Amino acid sequence: MTKEEQASIPFIVKIATSLVVFVTMFIVACVLGAADTSLKDVWQAITLDAKTDTVLMLREIRFPRETGAVFVGAALAVAGAIMQGLTRNPLADPGLLGLTAGANAALAITLAFLPNANYFTITIACFIGAAIGTLMVFGIGAAKKGGFSPLRIVLAGAAVSAFLYAIADGVGLYFKLSKNVSMWTAGGLIGTSWPQLQIIVPLIVIGILLALILSRQLTILSLSEEVAVGLGQNTARIKGILFIVIVLLAGASVALVGNMAFIGLMVPHIVRAMVGTDYRFIIPMSAMTGASFMLLADTLGRTIHSPYETPVAAIVAVMGLPFFLFIVRKGGSF
Amino acid sequence: MVRLYTKGLHIGYGERLIVKNLNVEIPDRKITTIIGANGSGKSTLLKAITRIVPQQSGTVVLDGKDILKENTKILAQKMAILPQTPESASGLTVGELVSYGRFPYQKGLGRLTKKDIEVIDWALEVTGTSDFKYRSVDSLSGGQRQRGWIAMALAQETEIIFLDEPTTYLDMAHQLEVLELLQKLNIEQERTIVMVLHDLNQAARFADYMIALKDGQIVKAGDCEEVMTHDVLRKVFQIDAHIGRDPRTNKPMCITYNLLKGDNQNEKMAIPLSSIGAYR
Fold it and tell me: Where are the transmembrane segments (chain A) (predicted)?
């Protein structure tokens, strides 16, 4: 498809297509799994008040899990898109720039020092950790004049992440909590429950709504800082709000699924190939695509080695690594 | 009384002062060009006047108000800036790029009004970029791309337009194309244009007012006859210039030049020589 033809397809058609893909993916994700279920069972679980084992399993285990996949996928993809626009760095991703590692370290510390912490407290701790991790990366990246070179940010991200993961591991070992910590961080979507979602989903929804409202500002900022100032944007304020949005989305995701690299990196790049570089289109499309992608990864994780689980983070990484190398090779023209 | 002037402007990054105690007035409805050697503070001055780089002290005054105290959106309705070689527009079409020039007038999610669309079409028209409206900016040639960016600045509908080296990376024909477009805007619509130019002869040919900077200070400001002189160019660029006349426009032009070999060189030589002597 040439550029002109691609541009001639209205955005509404593209987003509608992605919606269809998403709904199909959600149904597939609900039907397939270790336990035998049919489309009819899923339909009954949604509509009827039946109390069969299958319906209960769907309602209490599989539905919350897939709902979690939807929101985490969307959150990570949108966070990645914002980070790439904000830093004008095609390699930006919550997992690469210290957010995930920071949230992880905070998680380990919270489990160690506040053993009775409830889910909400842990979520808040993840936000704080994500914010500190990111500030460390940007602080190091900006310490030298000339600031945010993509390479320096990625290097700083790698160093800070390694440091924060070491803290998480150290705390886990010292307090004999390693198993607990890795249950959180490598557990993916296993055991996602409705009460957890009640805390996480509203935060992600707020984050994505803010991202949509600011998408036009983000496009201008992604052109160049100077252009943005010249057009009358209050860049300091916009960057501050976008930073909070990123922390909100990435922190909430870590609280729910632990480590999940590459989604935030990959999805926005795939989306750009479909809708161009205007963030008014990239943000909603990233949310839809991220959600579908996460459903796909989780369904694969549950089915390829059924009845055993393959960690979803591993599946995403296996799909993501070649993609990451491709972006690096391409030299990051985006 | 001019609309835009600076008062005691000091600008620097960290410890290093780049512009020192600068007082300059930008004449209204005229074309002003800023010239100077690399690192003389031309771009920095332009960025301070347009609030992109904050000054350390002093003020930039527009319409009687300190620009740092003015609402940035209101300012964007009064002055537009085209930074030096804007980064890639990363896939935006020319039409989309130009539509962002309406940003200072928009609220909320920014639907384009009828007026916005009229202004955008006009900006595309005068810059000769209407044909590229649906093409990606990245697919255009350097000259076309630069005109697209100028169209965005025009869509801002400001009375003052700043440009930082708008002709860099363009070939001779495209350079002239851009400068003639700016001249036309100045004459037909009385827009104030301020630009940094590297090419002295172009600066003299298109400017009503020239500002020559050296080490962050004004060596000379005035019309081209006052600035394009052997003496000023010697101070600003350390060159021995031969000034003649453009046979077509009758403006002064630098026909040829040599590097000055005088006091400057001797001073540089003096240090190593004496240190060699010390070792002996």
Answer: 12-35, 67-83, 95-114, 120-141, 153-175, 195-214, 241-267, 279-296, 308-328
